[in-house]
Amino acid sequence: MANLLVTGGAGFIGGNFVHYWNARHPDDLVVVLDALTYAGNRSTLGGAKAELVEGDIRDTELVEGLLRDHAIDTLVHFAAESHVDRSIVGPDAFIDTNILGTNSLLKAARTVWLAGTGVAHRFHHISTDEVFGSLGPNDPAFSETTPYAPNSPYSASKAASDHLVRAYHHTFGLDVTTSNCSNNYGPYQYPEKLIPLFLLNALHGRSLPIYGDGMNVRDWLHVEDHCRGIEACLAKGRPGETYNIGGGAELPNMEVIDTICAEVDRAFAEVDGLAARYPDAPAAKGEATSSLKSFVTDRAGHDRRYAIDETKARAELAYAPERGFEEGLRQTLRWYLDNENWWRPLAARIQ
After folding, report:
1. CATH label of the domain that carries residue 167
2. Residue 336 lies inside a defined structural domain of this protein
3. Which of 154, 168, 190, 278 is labelled catalytic?
4. Pfam families, per this entry (predicted)?
5. Which tens digits make up the pLDDT trace of 73-101?
């Protein structure tokens, strides 16, 4: 048995991880620490076996108390500001949460685990492939040895947090691992991100705004595959090491958007009652969802291509993604159609 503290566990990836861990490790204790900002929602943890503590990861005293009081031996750190557009408008929140917050957690872990209980432990830090910067069309995929070259305030703040985690291992001996993941998608994703945003816009007949020429390339990772990768890091990862977790689906944004449009059209053809529920959708009128596509000015500093080389994770962790993109996207879109009560209050905030 293990006792886990999951930071940001009421958010998208963290919430999926809690549900995944409950299913795979039902006897483990799970405590969630989440500030419940706009992207954290109690409803994401509906049905989960977890204690939710509302609080800030920058509150070092609070974190120390949770580690001691619950005999935590595993800390899985998801909590982060993560939306690039928001980081361009307001970088300060990203510095506060992603850098200062991560340092606060590391200080608490050092105090309790190294200077205190001496318990065998693991601090696992969730990072992103965006810390590596942008690839050219023929460049090799990001590996764990790719130099850091962050291009947005978001990715810069994550890069700094990665370095702090590494430093606490090499300087103080904290048992840490880090995983750098590619673009996640799946249930419970806040509807400001591409896939849920475009799905909900399509359902309501709103424009599908495409940055630049739509040919920016990302590697798409289903969130359950990501959770499997984190589980593998916790079980098999070597202390102090980093592992790239990818989805094996390197696609231009335009192809992703066209797939979303096709799957929405398919759903309206196959699911009874959708036209009545969403009468403003082009598909409700027999028209193609793709008619909603429009091009907008590109995002400032928009990285052109990300790609993940997961050779190390395959070799050391026996990790490989299990869900193909088309299957995973279809399941994701159907989940949103079946869980309108979860996303509708959130979507109202970003109209």
Report:
1. 3.40.50.720
2. no
3. 154
4. GDP_Man_Dehyd
5. 999 999 998 777 788 888 899 999 999 99
pLDDT for res 311: 96
**293 in the Ramachandran plot: left (φ > 0), alpha (ψ -120 to 50) or beta?**
beta
Burial 336-345 (b: 16+ CB within 10 A, else e): bbeeeebbee
**Of 179, 188, 252, nearest in space to 220 by CA:** 252
The single residue listed with the structure tokens 């492939």 is: 129
Element (H, E) at 17: helix 12-24
Q: Is residue 259 part of a domain?
A: no
Reading the block at residue 3, the tokens are: 């006792």
In a domain, 292, yes or no: no
81 is catalytic: no
| The one catalytic residue among 73, 129, 231, 303 | 129
Q: Which of 73, 130, 225, 265 is catalytic?
A: 130
pLDDT, tens only, 124-155: 999 999 999 999 999 999 999 999 999 999 99
Q: Tell me if the pTM is above 0.85.
A: yes
- Backbone dihedral angles phi then psi of residue 325, each to the nearest 5 degrees: -65, -45
Please determine, for residue 351, whether its predicted confidence score (pLDDT) is greater than 60.
no
Q: Which whole number is the average pLDDT over 210-228?
A: 94
Tally of structural domains, the chain: 1
> Rounded to the nearest 10 degrees, what angle do helices 102-109 and 153-172 cross at?
20
Q: Which domain holds residue 157?
A: 3-182+222-246+305-322
344 within some domain: no
Average pLDDT over residues 204-208: 95
Q: For residue 112, what pLDDT band results from cuts at 50, 70 and 90?
A: very high
Let me know if 28 is exposed, middle or buried by CB neighbors in 10 A (0-12, 13-18, 19+): middle
The total number of residues shown for the chain amounts to 351
129 as an active site residue: the answer is yes
